[in-house]
Amino acid sequence: MRLDMVGLKVKNMARSLMFYQALGFDILAGGPDEPYAELKNDGVRISLNLLDMLTEVYQVSLADVQEPIGTVIPKVELAFIMDEVKSVDKKCQELKEQGYEIYREPWDAFWGQRYAIIKDPDGNLLSIFANLDGKI
Q1: Is the distance from CB of 36 to CB of 29 less than 8 angstroms?
Q2: Looking at residue 33, which CATH number applies to its domain?
Q3: Residue 92 half-sphere exposure, CB side, CA atoms within 13 Å?
Q4: pLDDT, tens digit, for every residue of 96-119?
């Protein structure tokens, strides 16, 4: 068994696709007017799933769906490696200029990475990083 896909719940597909394209992903399947989209990624697939579609899949009503309350530490973290240390700062600056929120500005983490935490339109916290030693 191996992990094949990570799916994210989204409220507005068009807005989410704009963010993930700004982050650097191309759309592999789906689109802004569809309930499902998949991002082009080497390795584990990343899907965006409209909340309305997920209520059908899990057979629940929108009233049954609760947002996490009182916590900013995510249950699951997505972390994306970048080729160069300077790419982390550059990507954060690009996202900020496009109006996206940088949850934690880039810093040199004690574990040997240039690290930043960004927030997608649905409040998911995503990490982007590069190894300080330049290795991938």
Answers
A1: yes
A2: 3.30.720.120
A3: 23
A4: 999 999 999 999 999 999 999 999
